[in-house]
Design a protein that fits this description.
Layout lengths: L2 H25 L3 H7 L4 H18 L3 H8 L2 H14 L1 H6 L10 H27 L5 H30 L6 H22 L16 H6 L5 H17 L5 H8 L4 H29 L1 H11 L2 H5 L6 H29 L5 H29 L8 H20 L16 H6 E4 L3 E4 L6 H10 L3 E2 L2 H6 L2 H14 L7 H4 L6 H11 L3
Antiparallel strand pairs: 1-2, 2-3
Helix pairs in contact: 1-8, 1-9, 3-7, 3-17, 5-7, 5-9, 7-17, 8-9, 8-13, 11-16, 11-17, 11-18, 13-14, 13-16, 14-16, 17-18
Length: about 500
């Protein structure tokens, strides 16, 4: 891909993210307050989470088929964003409908989510092709910082607006916010339309069903990742929809106080994004995911100790730092662990299960809040927070160790030769790549286009020098790349290897 097109596309992607952040910042944290202003029940607030996610989860199953039919990912993204924008119009009218019509809020939010979720795998697939592989951590760290800063400004402005208008005009503020969201989403669609649009490589796409994906899930690194995130999101959404309810109803916080707590998280996330991005590029996605996956379970526990406003601001600062790492590392893990041609399908299946997890988690949380005895932890909501924290921690402790690094990282084995070429690949154990200072070896590898891997257990059972000799012997034999193609089929991220093969031997 031409470098100028890449630069322009990355710039438009940042603009798109900023426009999206205006919409998201002005509305995402305020849909629940809007429902509370409509006198919605806890069950309806829970439904605002699980019904949209349920519809969104099923709609994503068709993402790969949509790409197959239309092929132009940019058109799909633009159309989906515009439909998403239009659906802000009905929300403007809900406050002025009869009270019985307030349940339509769930329907409209569900339709919005459906369009947003449909284009999510497509967007991930396109960005995976546009962003240079070893710049992803830094780029998405920077992009997310822009998104975070913009979202913070939008959320703070929205909170101040609601706080000012709500005493006399309870719904006027929401009307203004939803109007701004509509305009911002249209701008987001326009910026998507300016991005470079490389055609997806559908020739080499592996067409596998949802059943096939599930059947192989416990056998692949990406499958282990999906299982972990799905269970983690289930645990998270047992509590996630009800933090706003707890603040606005149980603690009687004003819109301004509520907004300040949200803003604290956004500021912390903004500051942390660059740090997490560098960590991912230098240490790997698993390292960052492991750290953040151990920190985020602590958040609901911290809410149990005090309801003091200033204390909760500190808690949300910690939440922003933790979630920034989790969200950034999990999204990068997908790019690293999935073949480019399979990204739409794999992300769609992953998002389907993630959506189901959110649905079940939110529904369970709402049920528990409505049916737990009121004496439990003084508030049934706090008890739900406790359950959420325990389950998050259990998911991280049990499942995170099973993940393998999804991008190349350098390991220090003490021997200069091995320092240069020992790496880890997902689902592949220990892998050897000759990139060392030994020019003769490097030249032979370039000519042969070979890529050598060994079983991890064998490495443990043998010594380094023995493997060094085996490697030298292998190179000297100059085994053809075609014969070794099975060794690099799943090594889709190693472009410098495949490029050498293509240069010397043509595409295999």
């Amino acid at each position: 891909m031409p470098e100028d097109k890449i630069k322009k596309s990355l710039r438009y992607s940042v603009y798109d993210g900023a426009a999206f952040a205006v919409m998201d910042g002005a509305t995402a944290s305020f849909i629940t307050p809007f429902a509370i202003a409509l006198n919605a029940s806890v069950s309806m607030i829970a439904a605002l989470t699980y019904v949209p996610q349920l519809l969104g989860a099923f709609i994503q199953l068709f993402a790969a088929n949509v790409v197959e039919i239309i092929k132009d990912r940019r058109k799909i993204l633009v159309a989906g964003s515009l439909f998403h924008a239009i659906l802000w119009l009905p929300l403007l009218l809900i406050p002025y409908m009869p009270p019985s019509q307030k349940y339509l809020l769930v329907l409209y939010v569900a339709l919005q989510t459906a369009f947003a979720q449909l284009i999510n795998p497509v967007w991930n697939s396109l960005m995976g092709d546009i962003v240079p592989k070893y710049e992803r951590g830094r780029f998405f760290g920077f992009r997310n910082k822009v998104v975070g800063a913009t979202s913070f400004i939008a959320a703070l402005s929205a909170g101040l607006l609601l706080n000012y208008l709500s005493p006399k005009h309870p719904f006027l503020g929401f009307t203004i916010l939803f109007s701004i969201a509509l305009i911002a989403r249209v701008l987001s669609a326009l910026f998507k339309g300016m991005m470079h649009n490389p055609m997806p490589n559908l020739e080499h796409e592996e067409k596998f069903s949802l059943f096939d994906f599930v059947r192989r899930m416990d056998k692949t690194n990406y499958g282990h990742f999906v299982i972990y995130v799905v269970l983690f999101k289930f645990a998270t959404y047992i509590a996630a929809p009800f933090f706003a309810v707890y603040m606005l109803k149980n603690l009687s916080f004003t819109y301004l106080q509520f907004t300040m707590i949200i803003a604290a998280e956004l500021i912390a996330s903004f500051i942390a994004m660059g740090i997490w991005g560098r960590m991912i590029d230098e240490k790997g996605t698993k390292f960052a995911l492991y750290i953040s996956g151990m920190l985020t379970p602590l958040i609901p526990f911290l809410w149990l100790f005090s309801s003091n406003f200033y204390y909760l601001i500190l808690v949300e600062i910690f939440a922003g730092l933790s979630w920034a790492g989790f969200n950034l590392s999990s999204s990068n893990f997908i790019f690293d662990a999935v073949k480019p041609e399979n990204r739409v399908r794999c992300i769609a299946y992953y998002k389907f299960f993630e959506g189901l997890a959110i649905v079940i988690g939110a529904a369970l949380g709402g049920f528990l809040i409505d049916h737990l005895p009121k004496w439990v932890f003084v508030s049934s909501i706090l008890f739900v927070f406790l359950i959420s924290g325990i389950l998050r921690l259990a998911a991280s402790l049990v499942l995170l160790p099973a993940l393998k690094e999804a991008r190349l990282i350098e390991l220090d084995m003490g021997h200069s030769f091995f320092k240069k070429f020992l790496t880890i690949r997902p689902s592949e154990g220990i892998v050897f790549e000759v990139v060392g200072k030994y020019n003769k070896i490097r030249e032979k590898v370039k000519k042969a286009g070979t890529y050598l891997k060994f079983d991890k257990q064998k490495l443990i059972e043998s010594n380094q020098s023995d493997y060094g000799r085996k490697l030298m012997k292998f190179i000297d034999k100059r085994i053809s790349p075609k014969k070794e193609q099975h060794d690099i089929t799943d090594m889709h991220e190693i472009e410098h290897i495949t490029e050498e093969i293509e240069k010397g031997n043509g595409r295999k």
